[in-house]
Queue: 3 jobs
Job 1
Amino acid sequence: MNFDLIPALMLFALVSSITPGPNNLMLMSSGANFGFRRTLPHMIGVSVGFLVMLVLVGIGVMQLFDIIPYSFEVLRVACLLYLCYLAYRIATSSHVVREQQSSQAKPFSFVQAVLFQWVNPKAWTMALSAISVYAPSRDVAAVVIVGVVFVLVNLPCIGSWTIAGQKLSGWLHSAARLRIFNMIMATLLVCSVLPSLLS
């Protein structure tokens, strides 16, 4: 990998990590509903999961799409269906979360966040773009460098979304406000993936 490209890669990682998308919107919602500390495994799972995904995409998964072109279309439909399900869960979670007696309400776990990257259209777009532009040779060293840069840039970016959600939690103490907030976040979650799914 040409190390002169690192600043451009960092800028790409910053822009793609800080802008709204499924991970950031879900982390903001989790920060508002559960707080920063309980959302930490979700945050770390996003970064680790994306790193694993990016490396696997770089060293082999892209070839699968070349061999079986329709496999990418199947993936896009599966992503949309799963994200619609998550949006429904977010939209209907307010009455459960604020009633502290319910044990069902839990933030995403580390493992769930890692696995979620594989059905996140924005993560796929980021990974495919990063490998195509910054590690076109697809050799392991170049792919790992791209992944490490992404993790270093990504973690503070997604953390800022979680903190923003936590800061809103005081204002969202009202059940009605929390319900409206969660419905807005669910709608934005679906809207945030439409460009990736339709491109």
Job 2
Amino acid sequence: MKKRLLAMLLAGAMIFGLAACGNNEGSTETPNAGETTPAGTEETGGEAKTVKVGMICIGDENDQGYTYNFIRGMEDTKAKLAELGIETGDWVVKYNIGEDSTCEDANIELAEAGCDIIFNTSYGFEDYMLKVAADYPEIQFVGCTNQQSAVDDLDNTHNAFANIYEGRYLAGVVGGMKLQQMIDEGTITEDQAIIGYVGAYPYAEVISGFTAFYLGAKSVCPSATMKVKYVNSWSDATEEANAAKALCDEGCVLISQHSDNTTPATAAQEAGAFHCGYNNDMTGVAPDASLISTRIDWSVYMTYAISAVANGENFDQDWTDNMADGAVVLTELNEAIAAPGTTEAIEKAEADLAGGMHVFAGPLSGHDHWDTSLTWSIGEGEYFAESDLSQDGGLSAPQFTWIIDGITEE
């Protein structure tokens, strides 16, 4: 199968270090209990089909953020496939795998165990996955949140990402509604409408995410500004809490995050600030602070890919989907603390997105994260295509790395 994009696109995007959430360096693997799924794709019981599925995770079932969202996706996928007459039984899951050679070993072990399709769930897994995929051309290998398979020479490798920036935009609308309520009620002044953002790394996925959140907030609270602190880890509960606390100490009254733990939510609550989360509903740990969260529903892609394997069909080597089709979702709104009119604001923004609104639309201006002397701007009626393949044939993985006016990094 011919690749659709030139390798030069990959080289340019890789400069910005696109990355998926999740890291647990130095941890050990924990095989999934009951690895009993029959090997191979075969007919069973007349119409039922069985596919053996492997998945490699950077965390484990105790991770209440990134890995938890993949585990939820796995369980939802099993149920959806069963309705289609496709059985996957107990998936073979490798937990606590580092972004290092242990990932290569895990891919080999799953391939030798007879898996028909293997999901690698963290960006840092992709290089190790590609080392193995060439030796097992009959097995399909998926790099979630990656992009190299759009340009490599292997027909059995695939990338998958959803337009999570759409969910972050909507979560930003929720946060912005709360900020504007506080301004209108005199709790804060316009110049005190400051958002604090706990970021993992200054990579495109994180930068595009907090930009989308900020633009959503600013659409309903024009005076909003944002401060970003990076913790240089996908998952460090203590540092995430420290960053959130520091942002609150600097005057931020709303906290959001691109990090794996719930500690930014609890830190926001302790400081009397509000919060919008990622990957999981955090109202359970911070009911007085957490307004809403957004996440990717991985069962949409997993069901699509596994169904293709079961039916002997080809499937996309670079896949993305959006909120309108259910690949990006919001958790339940915490109406006890949300601003009046928030539900209606969400519905309007969601309809705008479904109707073709571009999140990264001009007028926008700013500078490059890596070289602040480089400036950038787009005018009214222009937009940055981000990662939607329907927009100018972009890659599925995020590519936006500009720091727009109104956002400061610390």
Job 3
Amino acid sequence: MAAHSSVHSGPATRARVLDEAISLFIEMGFTRAPMSEIASRLGITKAALYYYFASKDDLLIALVSPLLDRIDELLAEIAEAGVNDDLARRQLMTRYAALLRSDMRVVGIISRDVNVSSHPEIAPRTAAHVASLIELLAGPDADAERMARASAAMTVVQRGLFVIPGEPALLRSMPRDARIELVLQIAFSIVESSNADNECVN
């Protein structure tokens, strides 16, 4: 009874459930992680856990939605303002990277767990984000090269946040702030060199 009543303590316990769930999803993978293990680690019953989340899918959506919502808001704001020069492109990539860095555990499970990235309520949203980012960076009436450069720049930003197995020690040992700064500079150069080439032609 004590365990069941403790889960009814409101938002604080809901946050504990989410925190424990994402740790377990990272450790075991979304598909293999049982709700019973989440309940056990929190010292509550499964019935108490289901008081907050009707299913593991509901729990997953609750974990990832806040970040996806913030990206939606960023893209809507940027689209309204327009991306008309290299400074605006830099600001878009910098702000997007900052959003990803604000919730790296969520970004990690989306990026590394195919059962999460392909989830029917997650995959359409992340695909729409990527498409919008590329479109904004490439600009209106972009040709294939500018689209490819925008796509490459976004891949650099997204993948550059994580240490990749087999990376040289020099990269693995970089402080996170220094790493993302370097990644952003590379991404900027990919997009901006395309714009510079176009200006020279014109």
